[in-house]
């Protein structure tokens, strides 16, 4: 699937040391795009590290052929770990890793080594 992503707004947040993007994805005739595909495309567009790019949210209105979203691009992994909640960090991983992290967390075993930051 070819994603047509348009950056609507780009802000630099110097306090947290991240770039905050608002974007629009046109996907006429297709479903809402996969979060990981969007993450890879935005990281490539911005020339940033994919591991430090977080897709905060994707919102598609019922029947619409476009999706609005927010992405954060961090400069340092320590800031990402500190400011992003657990569920957002997990959403931005592959399905296999998400499943493994949730299983380890349920059994109260260490899981933080599975994050690649």
Annotation keywords:
single chain, 117 residues, alpha+beta, Alpha-Beta Plaits, 4 strands, 30% strand, globular
Description:
The chain is α+β, with helices and mostly antiparallel strands and 117 residues long. It has a domain at 4-83: Alpha-Beta Plaits (2-Layer Sandwich). The chain is built from 4 helices and 4 strands, in the order E-E-H-E-E-H-H-H. It has helices at 35-46, 77-83, 86-91, 95-106; strands at 4-13, 18-26, 53-59, 66-74. The chain has a 4-stranded antiparallel sheet with strand order 1-2-4-3. A hairpin with a 4-residue loop joins strand 1 and strand 2 (18-26). The chain is globular and about 45 Å long. The two termini are 28 Å apart. The model has no long low-confidence stretch (mean pLDDT 91).
């Amino acid at each position: 699937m070819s994603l047509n992503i348009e950056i609507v707004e780009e802000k630099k947040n110097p306090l947290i040391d991240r770039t905050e993007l608002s974007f629009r994805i046109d996907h006429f005739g297709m479903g809402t795009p996969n979060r990981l595909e969007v993450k890879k495309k935005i990281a490539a567009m911005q020339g940033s590290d994919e591991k430090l790019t977080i897709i905060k949210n994707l919102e598609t209105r019922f029947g619409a052929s476009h999706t609005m979203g927010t992405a954060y691009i961090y400069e340092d992994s320590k800031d990402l770990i500190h400011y992003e909640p657990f569920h957002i960090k997990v959403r931005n991983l592959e399905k296999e890793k998400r499943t493994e992290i949730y299983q380890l967390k349920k059994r109260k075993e260490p899981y933080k080594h599975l994050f690649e930051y």
